[in-house]
Amino acid sequence: MTVSRRTFVQAMGLALLTPFTVRSLAASNSETYARFNLGSSPFNSEIDNDGLVFDLSVASGDPSQTGVVLWTHINPAAYVSGQTLYIDVALDEGFTQPILSAEVSADDITADRDYTVNIDLEGYLSPNQRYYYRFKYGNLCSRTGRCHTLPTGSLESIKMAVVTCQDYTTGYYNAYNHLADEDVHCVLHLGDFIYEYAEYEGFEDSIVHSLALPSGGSVAMNLEDYRHIYKEYRKDKNLQRAMEMHSFIITWDDHETADNAYWDYDRDTLGVPSHPYQTGNNNPDQLRQLRRDAQQAWIEYVPARVKVNEAASHAFDYLQIYRSFQFGDLVDLYMTDSRTYRTKEPCKDGTAWENYWCTDYENESQTMLGKTQRDWLIDGIVNSNARWKVWGNQTLLAQLAGTALGRPLVYANYDAWDGYQWEREKILSTVKDSSIDNFVVLTGDLHSSITSYLKVNFNNINNWNYDNLVGVELMTPSISSPNMNDTVEKGIDVGSVFTSLLNGGVQLNNPHIKDFVSNIYGYAVIEFNHSELNWTVYDIDKKSDNPAATKKIYKEFNYEPVGMWLTEK
Question: Do 11 and 48 have their domain in common?
Answer without folding.
Answer: yes
